[in-house]
Amino acid sequence: MAVQQALPLGDVATETPRAYRGDHLLVAKMIERGSKVLDVGCGDGDLLQLLESRGIDGRGIELSREGVNRCVAKGLAVVQGDADTDLVNYPDDAFDYVILSQTLQATRQPKAVLENLLRIGRRAIVTFPNFGFWRMRLQLLVGGHMPRTENLPATWYDTPNIHFCTIKDFVQLCDEIHVKMERAVALDSYGRPLRLNLPWWFWNMFGEQGVFLLSRGK
Amino acid sequence: MDPGRVFSSGRVFYGLMSGSARESGVERMTNLQSIRSPAAHAERSQEADHPSSQVALFGADQPLKLDCGVDLSPFQIAYQTYGELNADHSNAILICHALTLDQHVANVHPITGKPGWWENMVGPNLPFDTKSYFIICANVIGGCMGSTGPASTNPATGKVWGLDFPVVTIPDMVRAQAMLLDRLGIATLFCVIGGSMGGMQALQWTAAYPERVFSALAIACSTRHSAQNIAFHELGRQAVMADPEWHNGRYADEGTRPHRGLAVARMAAHITYLSDAALHRKFGRRMQDRELPTFSFDADFQVESYLRYQGSSFVERFDANSYLYLTRAMDYFDIAADHDGVLAQAFRGIKTRFCVVSFTSDWLFPTSESRALVHALNASSARVSFAEIETDRGHDAFLLDVPEFYDIARAFLQSAGKARGLSKAGD
């Protein structure tokens, strides 16, 4: 999706000569070799290529026809589809991991999508822009207008992002639908992880995006 | 303007509607240029029994078990190959042809003298690279270009089979192809590829012999023929059967050919292969070699002239009964029906890598059909790529110069080749 391209972040690691995005590298590190993975909203397939290069069996769904065709032309197993309507076609436990990278905020039913992720996958990895980021807050508070940043440049009337949330909101949703948070990381504007021992409110203020590894609750 | 021509073209439709008995020779559809070319017909009869392709003969010990219950024996398969089979026989690609095409994928056609129908795809350094892959295309059972079909001679009677030929299905075609591959010593296909009816065969391959198909590229097709498509086929068949020269399918014995009926069938079908936008772009309402309407039923419009040409050139190279049989085979096709009505059941646990391609303006096999297939494949956790390509060229787009399609086909095969451990020839 276009949303994905909107977050060109620097590398957190220098382990590969190729310029992979920081959040992609972080996601890839969470997944074991040989796993079967579905990337929902896979954009141009950059993350899938990274995963395949690490011996991970990756599949993708992408909404935009152009994105899909670029992925397929790279030899990736990607289908055209909509996270809101097409996830229901996948059987339970079809994947080890289902990734929703920078796409949650563009879905019509984030809660239903999240539930589906954890139905088809044993684990889910969700990354999303944090609307509680201090620059967002400042623009609304001082500027009095809907926040726009370099990474999220769309205006309120043409943005595909219809369900923004903060890290705090997301954690609440996970609690509500009894999803277990195995790992949570907040990334700063450069895609670098914030220190782990910081309190939630700090992440919610200074994390530009959140990366969550989730599994089914009891 | 020739008044005789007006009369004659009007008669075609009269004949079609009434199914009237044979009329005088005046009613010939003379507007369809070169409708009778005895040389071409002789050549075609020759091709049916003694094709200018390689032929695999299957004797009494190897009958083809047809879905209708008949054991067809003896029978033959005519096929073309391109490229070379590698030492471990792992680089074989089977191309399945569409309804009115044949095995002459990338060579000059023996009857029409025209280039192969997929010369833009099959060849050195092309998406289906003959430097890397061994490519096979066989005429389908029921066809008229050398594989046994209604235009072939029935060895039991010494006469042309005609309607005595048993009704064949898409699974029958695939079963025959599997026998051919056995004969060629190919245990597994690297890829099975097909568009339209060829795509149906490709999908049938994956459903019937999943372990023999490493990857499958299914283009502009479906796992079942829709009611609308059956309706169009019925129209075509009725056009053939309404032609008095059809003689209940025994036209070979009568020394006639149901040209007019088959041409009308082709004209109707051809419309379904295009799109409103493509027809408008190509022809609009432009007149054919004239400024003003003739106030007649002559081919005033370019689009009429084009369709008549399509009809007349088709009858030169295709057998009318074969058209009936092959359209019927498509009508009967429904993979889900063979699996308790659940499509995903057909692909349960399948390891084959799929690539499904559809075209936005294809209304014969619309994207929704491909999407239903993809959903079923997803439900089976199959590895599948699915691309819908934007074009206004309709169903026929898969045969035309569509660069995005080339890129996708090439990348799919390369990625599958990597997974199969195929190295490029010369590496």
What does it look like?
The complex is a heterodimer of chains A (218) and B (427). By secondary structure, chain A is α/β, with parallel strands linked by helices. Chain A has a single domain (2-216), classed as Vaccinia Virus protein VP39 (Rossmann fold, 3-Layer(aba) Sandwich). Chain A is built from nine helices and seven strands. Chain A has helices at 2-5, 22-29, 46-53, 65-72, 83-86, 110-120, 134-143, 167-176, 200-206; strands at residues 36-40, 57-62, 77-80, 95-101, 121-129, 179-187, 209-216. A seven-stranded mixed β-sheet of chain A has the order 3-2-1-4-5-7-6, with helices on both faces. Chain A is globular. The model of chain B is unreliable at 1-36 (pLDDT under 50). Chain B is globular and about 65 Å long. Chain B is an alpha/beta fold. In chain B, helix 3 crosses helix 4 (197-208).
Shape of chain A: globular
Please identify the top-level CATH class of the largest domain in chain B: Alpha Beta
Order of helices and strands of chain B: HHEEEEEEEEEEHEHEHHHHHHHEHEH
Overall mean pLDDT score of chain A?
87
- The proportion of residues in beta strands of chain A is 15-25%
Spatial gap, N to C terminus of chain A: 33 Å
What ranges of chain A have pLDDT less than 50 throughout 5 or more consecutive residues?
1-17
Q: Which bin fits the share of residues in helices of chain B?
A: 25-40%
- Low-pLDDT parts of chain B are 1-36
Residue fraction in strands of chain B: 5-15%
The helix count of chain B comes to 13
Task: Write down the secondary-structure element order of chain A.
Answer: HHEHEHEHEHEHHEHE
Give me the CATH fold name of the largest domain in chain B: Rossmann fold
Number of strands of chain A: 7
What does the overall shape of chain B look like?
A: globular
Oligomer: heterodimer
Might you state the CATH topology name of chain A?
Rossmann fold
